[in-house]
Hints:
Layout: H1 2-36, E1 40-49, E2 55-66, E3 70-72, H2 78-83, H3 87-107, E4 113-117, H4 125-138, E5 145-150, H5 162-172, E6 175-181, H6 190-193, E7 198-201, H7 203-208, H8 213-228, E8 232-235, H9 241-249, E9 254-255, E10 264-265, H10 266-271, H11 277-280, H12 285-290
Parallel strand pairs: 2-4, 4-5, 5-6, 6-7, 7-8, 8-9
Antiparallel strand pairs: 1-2, 1-9, 1-10, 2-3
Helix pairs in contact: 3-4, 4-5
The structure holds ligand C2E and magnesium ion (3 copies).
The site of one magnesium ion has 4 residues, from strand 6.
Protein name: EAL domain-containing protein
Domain EAL: 24-277
Organism: Novilysobacter selenitireducens
Amino acid sequence: HAKSAGKGRYHFFDSQLESRVRTRQRRLDELRVALRDDQLLLHYQPQVDTATGRAVGVEALARWQHPVDGLLPPAAFIPLAEEAGLMPAVDAWVIRRACREAADWATQGVALTLALNVSAQSVTPALVATTIEALRESGLPPRLLEFELTETALLHAEDTGVVDVLQQLAALGVRLSIDDFGTGYGSLLYLRSLPIAAIKIDRRFVQAAPGTAQDAAIVKSLLDLGRTLELRVVAEGVETAEQLALLRELGCETAQGYFFSPPVPGAEAVRHGRVEGESAAGLLPDAAAAD
Ligand code: C2E
Ligand code: MG
Ligand code: MG
Ligand code: MG
């Protein structure tokens, strides 16, 4: 009896596994169609100056408007795309779309930096080509563009050509930042050799900081590190006034999180960032000359 029950159980797991494999395969096929048919879209989360409360930039975050299942978060498709090696295609789509949208805002007088997430898989010479093309197509000034990489993307940076790619991006004027800083690869060696402009303190540190002196000390030391190495430091995942107060006390200049705004459609995000015509003038030299 035990044997047949066991067998039945295996059948059960087999068919469960089978249907999961089928579901993933279907999602993957759908994702290829989504890329082709522009079913992806971008929401933008403001990055805020902690002193003035004004937005200084936005981070673009991908969503998938699925024809049947509705609006899907990155967790529903990015791991899958990563597994299938599709992230370069996703990131290329995001870069082109985001540059176009941000260039539009700039012509409307909105001066915001545009941060984009770039998967480890995407850091190849094709990324440089895509970036050059997206900047040229859109007219967005490179200095408004920032690529967020995770520490994992830098894991084998020395011997994989990643260094060359990052140096070429930096040479274009694109800034590089380290996302989820302090949660990934346990080496800081890359900070000595790579053109990194900013680090983003992972929300787990930010959210724990008001709790205990030790947690606050971690955030403080990351801010000290940033100051010493002349890196901009952005605190992620700020949800409460208490977290913000502590960050200001510790001298953190830029923060991002639900306390200010969740990621929202572009039109809504840029309302936070509209600036006076004068300070926006010259943002887009070509557009300004055409006026
Ligand atoms: P990330 O780049 O670290 O982005 C921050 C994530 O935290 C976003 O989740 C954002 O909605 C969420 N978040 C922001 N503020 C708060 C807060 O106050 N509290 C909490 N609990 N969460 C907050 P989202 O949009 O679901 O994106 C998740 C991850 O997916 C991103 O993490 C990024 O690693 C990846 N991702 C999103 N879009 C893209 C993309 O276009 N390309 C690549 N390569 N990765 C992307
Ligand atoms: Mg990010
Ligand atoms: Mg992050
Ligand atoms: Mg992340």
